[in-house]
Amino acid sequence: MWLLMNVKMTNRLFAAAFMLLLLIPLAFVDPTGGGVSERENRMLASRPGLGAIRESPSGFIRQLESWFSDNIGFRERFIRLHRRLDRLNGFGGQIVQYADGQYLYLVGEQGHHYLAGFNGELIPKYQGRSVFSDAELRALAARLDEINDHLDQQNIPLIVMLCADKESVYPEYYPRSIMRGPEPIQLDIVTNYLQVHTGADVFNIRQCLVDQKQNFALYNKADGDLIHYNEIGAFFSYLELMRHIRAYYPDMRPFTLDDVAFLNDANDVEMQAALSYRALDAGFFDAIELIRPFDWENYAFENDDPSLPTILLMRDSYAGKAKYLARYLPQHFGRTILIHYDNMRHFEDYVAFFKPDIVVFETAERQLTLFADAVMQSDDLR
After folding, report:
1. Chain segment 94-131, per-residue pLDDT in tens
2. Per-residue three-class SS string for the chain
3. What's the half-sphere exposure (Cβ side, CA atoms, 13 Å) at 138?
4. Cα dihedral sign for 66, 366, 221, 236?
5. pTM of the model as a whole
6. Residue 204 forms beta bridges with which residues?
7. Where are the domains of the chain?
8. Which of 90, 122, 300, 330 makes an SS bond possible with 284, Cβ 3.0 to 4.6 Å?
């Protein structure tokens, strides 16, 4: 009898402790939300107003769930714990996925890790599923061609640079349990279509990186930033972009391998050459309308030689991070202005205000649909 009562008491205590663990995070929910997650590079969901129930009950439920998931108490601690547990399982060979914040990763061959997106949505792309429908691709090409014609009337070249995800350059280390799609991959299909159906100078960096991958590590293997190419990959991508820029400015001298030192152990690049530019204060953008939730999204640089041309980049983090394209391009231009393409709806205002001599649109392969949405929302050209 005593043993039975002891078991019952233990079960009750266990149940009480379990319920307490569930209730404590609820007590610390952020009541409003809408903050910024630096780890996930996004705005957290805000609590929806009760008035939204009338407009769309199902939409209100989805918004409420997003707010709750984004703002539950001790969220960051739970994320870190979940990451550690899943990575331990992944390294043990039991599963091939682990979470890092809101991102999902795959553990591939020889210890290589790959970004799979928020819920694995990048895997179908690797398997060959189309990024765009035929109608979406036609619409994107038509809009880019319209923008190109508008800039051409002002003697401003438009270059469109599409960056490559790690699996497009290193497919051989992707998990073997996931079947790879056929060649050409979607990145090349989109690039080729835009080359044929627009007047813009469109290219992607995949081949230039494939040409170098036997000599250099161009993406991090398993640690550090697993979303972008590393600094070495960024350098060769810069050289490919300069090859296109020099079609319009042949006298520009790109940096060479003699101007840099590659630290392969850290996948870093050290500059040997002297730099002739400085970063401008964020107040440089005060005169224009701009979304800027993160510091890295909008940069401006000024060269010691103001007679050099001005370049405007509508881009994402593949260009904007300080040690990527933004490290090298200011050497060649009087002003280098980098604005996130989330602001594309004000693009014509930027052209009128900054008067660039050349424009570059840049996007990551994994963000092609977001880039297309931004281009389609660009303001009416005057």
Report:
1. 345 666 667 888 999 999 999 998 888 899 999 999 99
2. CHHHHHHHHHHHHHHHHHHHHHHHHHHCCCCCECCEECCCCEECCECCCCCHHHHCHHHHHHHHHHHHHHHCCCHHHHHHHHHHHHHHHHHCCCCCEEEECCEEEEECHHHCEEEEECCCCCHHHHCCCCCCCHHHHHHHHHHHHHHHHHHHCCCCCEEEEEECCHHHHCHHHCCCCCCCCCCCCHHHHHHHHHHHHCCCEEEECHHHHHCCCCCCCCCCCCCCCCCCCCHHHHHHHHHHHHHHHCCCCCCCCCCCHHHEEEECCCCEEEECCCCCEEECCHHHHCCCCCCCCCHHHCEEEEECCCCCCEEEEEECHHHHCCCCHHHHHHHCCCEEEEEEHHHHHHHHHHHHHHCCCEEEEEEEHHHHHHHHHHHHCCCCCC
3. 3
4. negative
5. 0.76
6. 162
7. 1-28, 31-72, 75-126, 134-376
8. 300
Only one residue has tokens 């990551």, namely 364
Largest CA distance in the chain: 94
Q: How far apart, in whole angstroms, are the C-alpha atoms of residue 301 and residue 312?
A: 11
